[in-house]
Design brief:
Elements (H helix, E strand, L loop, with lengths): L8 E5 L7 H17 L3 E5 L14 E4 L10 H8 L9 H8 L1 H10 L7 E4 L5 H8 L3 E5 L9 E3 L5 H9 L5 E5 L3 E9 L2 E2 L3 E4 L9 H5 L5 E3 L6 H17 L5 E9 L4 E7 L9 H8 L4 H17 L1
Parallel strand pairs: 1-2, 1-3
Antiparallel strand pairs: 4-7, 5-6, 5-7, 8-9, 8-10, 8-12, 10-11, 12-13
Amino acid sequence: MSNAEKFGKVAVLLGGRSAERDVSLDSGQAVLESLQRSGVNADAFDPLHRSVTELVHYDRAFIVLHGRGGEDGQIQGVLEWLDIPYTGTGVQGSAIGMDKVKTKQIWQGSGLPTAPYRIVNTTVEADVLVEELGLPLIIKPVHEGSSIGMSKVEHVSQLAEAIDKAISLDSIVMAEQWITGKEYTIVVLNGEALPVIRLQPPKDVAFYDYDAKYQRNDVEYGIPSGLSVSEEEELKALTLHAFHAVGAQGWGRVDAMQDQNGKFWLLEVNTVPGMTSHSLVPKAAQAIGYNFDALCLAILEQTLIEAEK
């Protein structure tokens, strides 16, 4: 049996119906083509157009479904029910990781640093909120990824519009204290934190938003990150603690900030990160000598370990 044949027939789950569908289609196509180049018998499987009952015809699944339906435990639950091994985080960890508030609560309970926040709606008293969190602050839909629906609020007059924008995507919205400083992302692969990446969006971008992530070509990615050796190791250790605290497994990404006093703050965890040409997981993997094809195979290998349990 060849190395690729041991995987059997693989469903590359992509697309779906979340707000991140387009990104998922791009990520999934890149993964599909990579696996096929490596000789894996892989098919694209879009749950928007096919019944998940058809997954019984596959031996394992590579999940590249971003957002709700793919990153929140739903598809993981289906695969568990069908007894099909899959990549990445399980049902519970996926559900927690997709919920920014639950993630924060677990990190706070674990003594991990994450910015103060509160859940808000259209009736929030702006003055009270600003007194609690200060300005600027950031408004986020609790169950969206890829920075969709997020807004930086620098003046009280911008608050209502920012909340309305987020509520149009999610019934639960949070306001979070703005951390001024440097932004980093740390990829986790098979229990190891890969080299830290410094994110430097252009000056006309308020934060690393959807446009910066997927459409612009002027974002700078620092590998090495510019952190000292001790700071990099501190952030890697913090990342692994944060990743495991929410029950994440296999592969993923943690985003963090370093404030002007040098303190690190955790932002969120991504249990099904992007795998597009702009994505950060391939950049971090390349820094340790993994090309894209080797990376995809390393992630798929996780399904063999799961199947042995």
